[in-house]
Amino acid sequence: MKRLARTPLGIRILIGLVLGACVGSFLPGPGIAAWSDSAADVARIVGQLWLSALQMTVLPIVFALLTVGLGRTSGAAGQDGSIVRRSVIVFATLYALSLVVAIIVNRLLLDVWPVSAAAAEAFQKVTQSSSPAARMDAGAIIVSIVPSNVFGAFASGAMLPVVVFAILFGLAMRTIEPDRRKHIVSLIESIADVMFKIVGWVLLIAPLGVFALVIGTVHETGLAIIWGLAGYLRHVLIVMSVLLLFVYIIAAFWARISLGRFAAATAPSQLVALSTQSSVGSLPVMLASAKTLQIGENTTNVVLPLAVSIFRFSGPAMTLSVAAYAASAAGLHVGTTQLIGGALLALLMEFTGVGLPNQVNIFALNAPVFAAFGAPLGFLPVMLAVETIPDAVATTVSVSMDVAAAGVVDRLEKPRSGKPEATSA
């Protein structure tokens, strides 16, 4: 039992998913035996109860993260002013470029390699909804994002109005006296801590919840949910692979580091990132990679710690890709304009999730983009069963870009400091 408790959550959820698929596939099909239909109904009720318990924390968490993130004064500008400023500019540019790439790749994948009908039906059965989520026209969406009654928005689970209110609340907090702001921030942080504690409790029984959900789904649809997860992995891993290729382009053309040198120097960092799924845990090896590339120590000591704190290059692209696939699985068409809006929302939410466990992040960061696309949030627990794979690859992409970004900032700093630029040989 103790050994099972030490098993990573993603592995335990995967075990629950596989066991649920096995049990569901062995049950007689719908209408064949009354006892199997009753067992599937009980499993579905248990799964929905668990899913509702998880969903009830999403709005308070999103509100708390946004308001605290925007309301707290920034204290990062006191190190080396020039390097910090250049780093932030480089990070912002790379974030923008990553989202452009993600929008293009997602648009192509959704058109060329759409979700199969069987997989879409299986995903929809997870949330007990075989019909697409309700969608509003553009005018109604624009009007609805500014809540006339914020408590009504919380009560109805309207994500976008709550996000807008949280942004305004956070920005307004910055204008009041520091002592009074400190008390408000402390209160909201305490609320967030309580919500995270509840999420932790709910996630302890996540394997049971997913097990129950999948039993009911497989009983009705067969093993199509497994193929749906395979399609999800294919979708996000293609996006991440393109972004990794983009990292090497940035290293070669902006940092002026040859591809061979960059690949050899970053390989140890990539292996650590792939195995630990942690940018922070990869920092010591990233510093060694930067030293191998002869990136200035002053630059490295500022850029890389700053990068692992506020810059997760692959994060918004991953959030966008997950939501785009989920919307497609729900039978919804995601247009280019929606992808652009979702990308901006994903970028905004990325800054609220620094330091959170990935199992919490996947709900807090994805929920607003899911809402923007009309995708059911109930898809996320099933996706979490295989999240270890895309998360490991996404962390590898982010760590690689962190080193490349340090090379870019170092190259930009050298002309200013009068030092000769390193050759790319």
What would you say this structure looks like, in words?
This protein is an all-alpha fold and 425 residues long. The protein has a single domain (2-417), classed as Proton glutamate symport protein (Orthogonal Bundle). The chain contains 20 helices and no strands. The chain has helices at residues 2-6, 9-26, 34-55, 58-71, 81-112, 117-126, 138-144, 150-156, 159-173, 178-204, 206-221, 224-253, 259-276, 283-292, 297-310, 315-329, 336-350, 358-373, 379-384, 388-417. The protein is globular and about 75 Å long. The chain starts with a helix and ends in an 8-residue tail after the last helix. The model is unreliable at 73-80, 129-138 and 417-425 (pLDDT under 50).
Write a brief caption for the model.
This protein is mainly alpha-helical and 425 residues long. The protein is 77% helix and 0% strand.
Oligomeric status: single chain
| Count, helices | 20
Total strand segments: 0
What CATH calls the topology is Proton glutamate symport protein
Cα-atom Rg, whole angstroms? Answer: 23 Å
Q: Structural class per helix/strand content?
A: mainly alpha
Share of helix among residues?
A: over 70%
- Largest sheet properties: none
Distance between the termini: 55 Å
